[in-house]
């Protein structure tokens, strides 16, 4: 819970990003009460998820780039997928989600900086993708994820935070299931919270000395 003059009192989820961290590090994190973990690489994450199967309360978020051939493994093993950026991936996740599991929670990754080499759907295309995801029975549309451009030298990225906030508000109004804005890493926590983020993905600030 965070409270200051700019920020309303609200719940903020922290996802511990454990890419490149080993199982013992994750166990240690679990032992101090961390329950939600973000992973980027399928091979690496499956080993960890299997090894930690007995910890029933752990929630796994896939936050890496998605290849179509990995959608089945994601659908079978993760509680959340934060990086959907095209309909094809949504269709496959919906198809492969085991029917005995609840729908997988999904976020649409938006390429808010509109850089060619970045993942995410362009702003002009997110509505169509949201509509199609919303209609898929084994996906639960929870909101959006984004990584604004790093604020280097003279580049001002504050407009991107404003845009993402606006997109989130629009989506929330339209879809009752939408409640999550996954924005912010170790680099930009404050800016993200001001942009009404309620899910922060932290790697370095938790695990690096
Ligand atoms: C690695 C990663 C993070 C965490 O970044 P840190 O700088 O280590 O806090 C968050 N989100 C995504 C998508 C990542 O790949």
UniProtKB/TrEMBL annotation:
Alphabetically ordered keywords of this record: Pyridoxal phosphate
One Pfam family per UniProt: Ala_racemase_N
InterPro entries: Ala_racemase_N, PLP-binding_barrel, PyrdxlP_homeostasis
Cofactor: pyridoxal 5'-phosphate
Positions of modified residues (N6-(pyridoxal phosphate)lysine): 19
Family: Belongs to the pyridoxal phosphate-binding protein YggS/PROSC family.
The protein's role, per its UniProt record: Pyridoxal 5'-phosphate (PLP)-binding protein, which is involved in PLP homeostasis.
Name of this protein: Pyridoxal phosphate homeostasis protein
């Amino acid at each position: 819970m965070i409270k200051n003059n700019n920020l309303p009192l609200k719940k903020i989820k922290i996802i511990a990003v454990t890419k490149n961290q080993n199982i013992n590090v994750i166990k240690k994190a679990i032992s101090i009460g961390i329950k939600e973990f973000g992973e980027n690489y399928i091979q690496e994450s499956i080993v960890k998820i299997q090894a930690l199967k007995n910890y029933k309360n752990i929630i796994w978020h896939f936050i890496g780039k998605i290849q179509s051939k990995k959608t089945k493994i994601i659908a079978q093993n993760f509680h959340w997928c934060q990086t959907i950026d095209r309909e094809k991936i949504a269709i496959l996740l919906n198809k492969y989600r085991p029917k005995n599991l609840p729908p997988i929670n999904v976020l649409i990754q938006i390429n808010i900086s509109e850089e060619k080499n970045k993942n995410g759907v362009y702003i002009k295309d997110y509505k169509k993708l949201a509509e199609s995801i919303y209609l898929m029975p084994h996906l639960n549309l929870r909101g959006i994820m984004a990584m604004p451009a790093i604020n280097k030298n003279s580049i001002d990225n504050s407009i991107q935070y404003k845009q993402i906030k606006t997109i989130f508000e629009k989506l929330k109004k339209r879809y009752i299931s939408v409640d999550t804005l996954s924005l912010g890493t170790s680099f930009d926590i404050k800016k993200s919270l001001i942009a009404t983020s309620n899910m922060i993905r932290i790697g370095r600030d938790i695990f690096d000395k």
